[in-house]
């Protein structure tokens, strides 16, 4: 699809800024075509996109695209929609033809919802290329990105009918889930750790003070919601393959969903937190990750009431749904139509699950504008085609049938036809008439049925006719929220253990002090004080703007009496020395641990009473890049014979064996008297091919928490 350039993109941005959010700049009755969606930034009708600067884009501005053989075509009341759909099919003819060993969750989302339906064999090839040693864990243990691979793999099996692929994919999915559960699961929250991005890493999505270890300790809504989807997909695979553990996997999914709702749901905001962060006393990032929220709804993580609350309380902005809301501190004002097309499609899918609560029209209108304007993202047309097939046509795949649950805004009441859609051995021409979400008539090859599905056993050409009941859906409306920003992360100068000062206070921002993960007080000055002198205090200071938008905490500060902490020197419990450190005096400081040398080191620690303690390891790892998952050393910890968790030790740099760091922190219970703590190398913690199996121990730190 080719475009004529717009003459006034600069005036568009200026006009949108001047108008602000919430009021449509041109009355909709001036348009000659029914309106799909309208905000102060644009109005999308069936045949035109109107911009505040006076520009109008119509189908006449767009060079036609020929749909390649084997892909469906669309005929609708909207020439713009038809043109975008054709462009998407042309893109899919050449897209995803070169397999990649790692793909973003956003890519696997597209495989799941689009390519699995349009070209399941290519989808399976792309998914298979991401597998290494029967596991999909390119960035583990530093992130949990595998969940959407599993649901995409099942969807490709349902589209193709390949039992061979289903069995292979199920084995890979199980290996991957069990590995991540073993390494990433927090023993306290029962959430998976590891920071996960939906797309590419985004500046300011994490506070700058975070180390690689701090990022690992994040428990994201995105990673955990995707893992719920993966566990449910494995349960469905078990049923399809006649395996006996379907119920066990469904229970895993339910338990993880319950942990998400317990730890990440924010009742006062009526939405999920982006993630939990800051170690053993975590606090929520109140910024909404809209990819995570939409996926949570699609995977039935929230209750129906919670799902409706998310859809009602998460606003669209001038140019659609943002990835993050409020915007991250330091990010510029949104560019016209600069939001990710994938988020618009995700929000349309989530809204279609609750058609009486949220409108699908706004994301459809945004995608139509994005795909029609010069310089728009190519993915916009593909996401719009996805929305046509999965929302407007309501196509869902089951084990033995393709089912239909259309959600069609009134503006498309004159109907549309998708022709030449392939499903296993059949080719389908699908016509949807009317509007709403309730089916009044459903016919296959002219024969009416109330099953609303097409059997997978059909072959040859067939027609599906759907007439909707014209039930009313929420109006798209014209109100949008203004773009707001989370306040900047404060810097605190700690003058002593108990007193610090915010060095850069913002006059319009208030600050909340958290102690051990709970709100302690709202500060009335730049001074931060810790009053408890005989207790462990983990202090976090969170900024709150006048618009009640919360930002990220300052770097946490821990205060405790000296007697609360002890360092168990590794050389007191195992033979020191390592050839990795040349200085003979320094080499006696470290105990080298590898699969063949000190693979298990046993520490003993006496406690005066049974209490909760923090456990972390000071280590040295010179195996490679700090951000490389393959260079991350892992050790299993047991306390008095009970599993306590996994120590994650990212590298400091290639060959840097004198640079020490602290591992992640585990919360452990020590009993009164002597306690036995083992730090053990286990091959089960490693993906084949991982480099960092050797690590140097300096000391094990034990700190009393309560």
Would you write up a description of this structure?
The chain has 706 residues and is an alpha+beta fold. The chain has four domains: 1-94 and 315-481, no CATH class; 104-310, Glycosyltransferase, CATH 1.50.10.10; 492-560, Sandwich (Immunoglobulin-like), CATH 2.60.40; 563-704, Sandwich (Jelly Rolls). Helices cover 27% and strands 25% of the residues. Helix 3 (105-118) runs antiparallel to helix 4 (120-129), helix 4 packs antiparallel against helix 5 (147-160) and helix 10 packs parallel to helix 12. The chain is globular and about 80 Å long. The N and C termini lie far apart (64 Å).
Keywords:
39 strands, six-stranded mixed beta sheet, Glycosyltransferase, alpha+beta, Immunoglobulin-like, six-stranded antiparallel beta sheet, about 700 residues
The largest sheet is: 6 strands, mixed
Order of strands across the main sheet: 7-17-18-22-19-20
Number of strands: 39
Number of domains: 4
Relative helix content: 25-40%
Approximate shape: globular
What's the assembly state of these chains? Answer: single chain
Regions with little confidence, pLDDT below 50 for 5+ residues: 1-29
- Number of H- or I-type helical stretches: 15
**Radius of gyration (Å):** 28 Å
Q: What would you call the structural class?
A: alpha+beta
Question: On the 0-100 scale, what is the average pLDDT?
Answer: 91
- Spatial separation of the terminal alpha carbons: 64 Å
Please indicate the percent range of residues in DSSP E strands (runs of 2 or more).
25-35%
Q: Helices, strands, pairings?
A:
Elements: E1 2-3, H1 9-19, E2 35-38, E3 43-45, E4 48-50, E5 56-58, E6 62-63, E7 73-75, H2 79-94, H3 105-118, H4 120-129, H5 147-160, H6 163-184, H7 212-216, E8 219-220, H8 221-241, H9 246-264, E9 265-266, E10 271-272, E11 275-277, E12 283-285, E13 288-289, H10 290-298, H11 304-313, E14 324-325, H12 341-353, H13 361-372, H14 379-392, E15 395-397, E16 401-404, E17 416-423, E18 425-433, E19 439-444, E20 447-448, E21 453-455, E22 459-468, E23 492-494, E24 499-502, E25 510-515, E26 518-522, E27 527-529, E28 537-544, E29 557-559, E30 565-569, H15 584-587, E31 591-593, E32 600-607, E33 611-620, E34 633-639, E35 642-649, E36 660-662, E37 666-670, E38 673-680, E39 695-704
Parallel strand pairs: 18-22
Antiparallel strand pairs: 1-6, 2-3, 3-4, 4-5, 7-17, 8-11, 9-10, 11-12, 13-14, 15-16, 16-21, 17-18, 19-20, 19-22, 23-24, 24-27, 25-26, 25-28, 28-29, 30-39, 31-39, 32-38, 33-36, 33-37, 33-39, 34-35, 34-38
Helix pairs in contact: 2-14, 3-4, 3-5, 4-5, 5-6, 5-8, 6-8, 8-9, 8-10, 10-12, 12-13, 12-14, 13-14
